[in-house]
Amino acid sequence: MVTFTLNGETRQVDVEPDMPLLWVLRDELKMTGTKFGCGVAACGACTVHLNGEPVRSCQTWIEDVEGAEVTTIEGVDNKAAQAIQAAWVELQVPQCGYCQSGQIMQASALLIETPKPSDDDIDAAMESNLCRCASYARIRKAIHRAADIMEA
Fold first, then answer.
1. CATH number for region 2-71
2. CA-CA to 68 of 20 to 30 Å: which in 50, 76, 109, 114?
3. pTM (predicted TM-score)
4. What's the pLDDT tens digit per position in 65-97?
């Protein structure tokens, strides 16, 4: 039995200790906003926050979240995430949308750490979040826009 906080709510799951957090979220807890992309932590589609830090849930074992706080796209609701989501809509960032929950989770963590990021800051933070549609220029522009929204 593993106990952790998910989006502000205490949850317990009885699964194998080496089950990836991604599968616990999607299959056991029916939280399907976090996406499966590659399974090897190379694409970022499965990004969630673990104790406030972005991690790849496909390579985070459930036993490693015992007592921790996990935030998914369904539960992220801080100033940075709200600004990111507003900028994403305003600038029509997504095309297919598959990678967007991971992109938003990574970008909101960036803005919490670096409220006014440079292009280099954005590129470094976002480089391991892949987008099949190659909307990288819109993603960068939306992160800058979100920083402006937060500053206002």
1. 3.10.20.30
2. 114
3. 0.95
4. 999 999 999 999 999 999 999 999 999 999 898
Contact 83, 69 (CB under 8 A): no
Statement: 79-151 belongs to CATH 1.10.150.120:
yes
DSSP string, 98-130: TTHHHHHHHHHHHHHH-SS--HHHHHHHHTT--
Integer Cα distance of 92 and 89 in angstroms: 5
d(CA 126, CA 106): 7
31-64 pLDDT per residue, tens = 999 999 999 999 999 999 999 999 999 999 999 9
- Return the pLDDT at 14: 98
Dihedral angle computed from the Cα positions of residues 143, 121, 52 and 134, in that order, rounded to the nearest 10 degrees: 50
Query: What residue ranges do the domains of the chain occupy?
Result: 2-71, 79-151
Angle at 107 between CA 146 and CA 120, to 5 degrees: 90
Instruction: Write out the two tokens for 141.
Output: 């522009």
Residue 71 backbone phi and psi in degrees, to 5? -120, 130
